[in-house]
Design a protein that fits this description.
Elements (H helix, E strand, L loop, with lengths): L1 H14 L13 E6 L17 E3 L2 E3 L2 E2 L5 E2 L5 E6 L1
């Protein structure tokens, strides 16, 4: 009887739906700041390049429109999302 109970519980555990967060939308925000002395800018050279990955899946990263700002001291800041 114990073997049948263990087999039943194991079967139910295998067939039961898993509770995951796969349907939840996530986003990665990347804030960049470059000083005025830097030879780089705070912008992405190629929008859509995979700067991040999750479970070995590359995530394309895009600039958020209108967030590239050049400050009074010459520094730049920008926001990108994946």
């Amino acid at each position: 009887m114990l073997h049948k109970l263990v087999a039943l519980v194991t079967t139910l555990a295998v067939l039961a739906p898993s509770f995951t967060w796969a349907g939840t939308a996530y986003s990665l925000s990347w804030s960049r700041t470059q000083s005025y002395l830097s030879c780089e800018g705070a912008f992405l050279v190629e929008s859509g390049d995979p700067f991040f990955s999750v479970n070995d899946t590359p995530l394309p990263t895009y600039e958020v429109p209108g967030t590239l700002v050049t400050h009074a001291d010459g520094s730049q800041s920008n926001l990108a999302e994946a």
